[in-house]
Design goal:
Blueprint (H helix, E strand, L loop, with lengths): L7 H4 L6 H6 L3 H8 L4 H5 L16 H11 L6 E5 L5 H9 L4 E6 L2 H5 L9 E3 L12 E7 L7 H14 E10 L4 H10 L9 H11 L4 E5 L3
Helix pairs in contact: 5-6, 8-10
Length: about 220
């Protein structure tokens, strides 16, 4: 297990006004709408989520870094847990055209509006119960998904991620190291359920038997 940063370059590309997030609109109502993970979350107003989640190629550098770090072979099998519209998986297929990819997400809208090249390999599903055999994938990734789970689902999801990986695993979650980062996280988030420090996250990993790598996103 190791902490690895693949995501900061993508995370910091978005500029955030934390105070505006909580004073411009009814934050609780916005969070309730976002938590449905429908059109409003992906392609609606910014106050409800992404404000339009469209392919722009930014995930290519992340996929390349993972391919290099984990030494993935041309025919590697890769699962994305919480794949959204499949942009990261699409980048894996560009780098490794012979790869086998799969993705699951709770959002039917996300799957229905996924990148068409990988859409056939995506399915609606829950991270706490994956419909794959043990040791099915060379790499299992989950980006910005597990912090959206309650603790009982989080434990199951970590165990499932470990179960279906026959090689490497990597996840990224939102966390905080200081009171300022905690406040910024709470101001900005819409769907987060698990608010934990890095040490608490690592404890959760150990409790679930997760032995893969991880990374944290901080709201500085």
């Amino acid at each position: 297990m190791a902490e690895i940063d693949f995501i900061t370059r993508v995370h910091t590309a978005t500029k955030r006004d934390y105070l505006e997030r909580v004073v411009e609109h009814d934050k609780a109502e916005c969070a309730e709408i976002a938590g449905r993970f429908g059109k409003d979350y992906w392609d609606g107003d910014r106050r409800h989520g992404f404000g339009g989640y469209r392919y722009d190629g930014r995930w290519n550098v992340v996929a390349q870094a993972m391919v290099d770090h984990y030494g993935l072979k041309p025919d590697a099998s890769i699962l994305d847990v919480g794949c959204g519209k499949g942009f990261l998986l699409y980048e894996f297929t560009r780098i490794l055209p012979q790869a086998t990819v799969a993705g699951i997400d709770v959002s039917a809208y996300g799957i229905e509006n996924a990148k068409e090249e990988v859409q056939p390999f995506l399915q609606v599903g829950n991270a706490n119960s994956l419909s794959f055999e043990d040791d099915s994938f060379d790499l299992v990734v989950s980006i910005n998904t597990f912090h959206n789970l309650y603790n009982y689902d989080l434990h199951a999801a970590l165990s499932e991620m470990q179960r279906v990986s026959r090689g490497s695993a990597y996840l990224t979650v939102e966390s905080y190291r200081t009171e300022r980062e905690k406040v910024n996280l709470m101001y900005w988030q819409l769907t987060c359920r698990a608010f934990m420090t890095p040490a608490e996250w690592q404890w959760a990993f150990q409790q679930a038997g997760y032995t893969g790598d991880w990374g944290f996103i901080y709201f500085e």
